[in-house]
Amino acid sequence: MTALVEFAGLGRTFGSGPQAVVAIHDAMGAIEQDDRIALVGRSGSGKSTLLWLVAGLDTPTHGTISWPALGRPKGDPFLVGTVFQVPSLVPTLTAVENVALPLLLHGVAERDAFATADAALERIDLAAVARQLPDELSGGQAQRVAVARVLATRPRLLLADEPTGRIDRHAAREVLDALRATADEVGAGLVVASHDPLVYDTLPQRWTISDGRVAVTGALR
Ligand SMILES: Nc1ncnc2c1ncn2[C@@H]1O[C@H](COP(=O)(O)OP(=O)(O)OP(=O)(O)O)[C@@H](O)[C@H]1O
């Protein structure tokens, strides 16, 4: 299977001189389509930095990273889908408009974009709130709308950064189930960065990160 992402000797240092912070140190790894990885580490251990590098949104200061199956993913939501701790929905748009937005911005015809957005919301059990504004949604619902927005673009790789950080346990489980179902449905690799035990209890593989050093510690599939 062609890897989605491969990296070796990967490093990211912020700043220089005595103030330099080595956020990622000499990391090696690969992510494939059927990977379901919990990226586990304390606050400040380097999880977000690694995700940004893997997404192609940041440039390493050392080593190499490539996307053999993706070309150059930089910011392309059809290649790499992202879900963050805060769902970052446009407050003046309804749930379905938020989900349709990346499609519309990338030239999908309005009718098709809304049909796809409605189907994605339905798939994640959110059809009932499709016409509501973000303010009218619970935290868990808003986060699942962000997952539906990813589902609608059918990316090859799905990256989530602390997606359960601000919601209760029940909602967290629903969000994780939605992320996993989305990855399964579109055939995407999945990496969820978190220090929430629910995340690493739910996903079969584990990468541990400590002071910027990444180790594969969980079961391999
Ligand atoms: N833009 C930046 N400039 C300077 N230092 C940074 C920058 N981004 C991250 N860092 C530093 O790099 C290290 C790793 O940060 P990172 O955000 O990747 O950790 P994290 O594990 O995602 O933490 P959290 O769980 O709190 O989000 C930290 O020491 C952080 O202060």
UniProtKB/TrEMBL annotation:
Lineage: superkingdom: Bacteria
Alphabetized Pfam families for the sequence: ABC_tran
Matches recorded under SMART domains: AAA
SUPFAM superfamilies for the chain: P-loop containing nucleoside triphosphate hydrolases
PROSITE patterns attached to this UniProt entry: ABC_TRANSPORTER_1, ABC_TRANSPORTER_2
Sequence ranges assigned to domain ABC transporter in this UniProt record: 5-220
Gene Ontology molecular function terms on file: ATP binding
Annotated keywords: ATP-binding, Nucleotide-binding
PANTHER family: ABC TRANSPORTER RELATED (PTHR24220:SF685), IMPORT ATP-BINDING PROTEIN (PTHR24220)
Name of the protein this chain belongs to: ABC transporter ATP-binding protein
Organism: Nocardioides ginsengisoli
Lineage start: Bacteria, Bacillati, Actinomycetota, Actinomycetes, Propionibacteriales
